[in-house]
Specification:
Strand content: under 5%
Radius of gyration: 19 Å
Distance between the termini: 46 Å
Low-confidence stretches: none
Mean pLDDT: 79
Order of helices and strands: HHH
Number of helices: 3
Largest sheet: none
Number of strands: 0
Length: about 50
């Protein structure tokens, strides 16, 4: 019984993490855009290659 309850808790936690990671707020995109604009050219090129 103890194992089952732990499995249920783990599943619930994993599901909540998956759902929360799906949210992208506009202000986060704006902050990311500013950060990318301020990157050194070498790092920016590397980032563009990853995308």
């Amino acid at each position: 019984m103890k194992i089952i309850s732990r499995l249920i808790i783990c599943c619930c936690l994993l599901c909540s993490v998956v759902k929360s990671s799906a949210w992208v707020y506009p202000e986060h995109r704006y902050i990311a855009m500013l950060a990318i604009q301020q990157m050194k050219p070498a790092y920016r090129t590397l980032l563009n290659q990853l995308w």
